[in-house]
Every structure is written in C-alpha cells, then in structure tokens.
Amino acid sequence: MDKPNSPVFNFFRKILGRQVITPVEQHVPLNEGIQFQRFETTYPKQYPPLIDQLREALKYRSFIEEAAKGYYLQPSVIAGMGSRESAWGLTLKPLGPGGRGDFAKRLPRGNRTTPEPPDGPGYGRGLMQIDYDWHEFARTGRWQSPRENIFYAGSLLANFREELKKKGMRNHLLLRATLAAYNGGVTATWNAYQEGLDIDANTTGKDYSKEVLNRSGWFQLHGWQ
C-alpha cells in the first residue's frame, strides 16, 4: 500500500470502542450507492481450498456485509479480497484473525526504524493484512478484531476509490483499480493506467484485482452478493 497522506490517515488514530473513525466518513457521499456486478470465476463451485475459506468467512459474514453497506462495496468483493489476503485467516500465524503474514524481511520504511517490528515479525496484520509500516492501525489499533480489521480495509478501499475518481477514473476499470491500489498503492496503480499497462502491472503477482474478482465470483456462486 502507498504511504498514507498524513492529514487524512490521522483520523485512523482515533478509535472509540469498536468503531474506527476513518477518513472515508469525511469524503464518501452518503447517496453514492453501488451497482451490483456479477463476476466470472474460473474456480469450480466445490473447490476444496475455497470451501475451507468459505467456512471461515461465514464466521465474519455479518461484519463483511456491514462494512460493505457502509463503504458502498459488494460483500462478495470483500470476501474475495479476504480470500486473497489471508485465505480468511487460514494462512496466518497463528491461524485466525489475530494472526500475521508477510514475514519476508525488508528494509525499514514508513515510521519503522528497527530491522523488524518491535512487537515481532510479520508485516501483514489480521484477516485483511493491514501493513505494519504504513498504517498506525496495524501498530497500535485493534487489528486482531475481525470487525475492526474488515472495517479498516473497507475504509481504505473507499478512500482509494475516491482518490482515483478525483484523478479522473470513471470507467469500468475503477473497481479493479481500487483493488489494485489496496495492494500496490494509488500512485503505482494510476501510473500503470496512464502508461497503458494492465491495471495490475504493479501489484503482487501482477494479477491482484483480477484474482480478487475471480474469487469474488466464486463467493457469488455460494450466495454472496
């Protein structure tokens, strides 16, 4: 993810109970709404690895649907993203919403000056793998809470969508670009678009948004909107 713009992301530092105060509450019009989209999938309906992930995602379905409604997203999109990020907790250490991922060592960046996070390795935090280096929420927030982690991810998507719309993106690529920005950052995503590259050119595996929507289509086969 891109380094957050400090005036906006400072809102994330305010947490009242279980409600995370986000910049999106300041920027997303309440009457924006969304149009339902159906996504194709290459996965068979009874694909065992995704069946396992579906069982996990069902534990958090109420949070997913609540966040989707609040941030004008389809629940299936959040479901597909959680599948890609952490297999809904099945690839984390330890397993579940309190687990971590992304253990590859990297140079200090953002606000980190130590070789590893002071609270231990693993830069991706929680179900939606919020990055430790760039997000205060991943350092001091309740990232172990499934609801707050999902809501934080939803707020990021909504904020990235608004940034891309302000840059002039209005076409069918907006959703894919929003997802790509979650993985690779708004700047890298916009640069790929401007250069005529695939919108996923600067994402992990160069397929992030495609694969999220591929998984979203699979979740739709199981009744997720």
What is the terminal-to-terminal distance? 26 Å
Largest sheet strand order? 3-4-5
Instruction: Describe the global form.
Output: globular
**CATH architectural label:** Orthogonal Bundle
Averaged pLDDT: 87
Taking all Cα atoms into account, the compactness measure Rg is 16 Å
Beta-strand percent range: under 5%
Give unreliable regions as ranges.
1-31
Order of helices and strands: HEEHHHHEEEHHHHH
Find the count of extended strands (DSSP E, 2+ residues).
5
Helix content: 40-55%
What does this structure look like?
The strands form two sheets. Strands 3-4-5 form a three-stranded antiparallel sheet. It has 225 residues and is mostly helical. It contains ten helices and five strands, in the order αββααααβββααααα.
Keywords:
225 residues; mainly alpha; Lysozyme; three-stranded antiparallel sheet; two-stranded antiparallel ribbon; 10 helices; 5 strands; 45% helix; 4% strand; globular; disordered N terminus
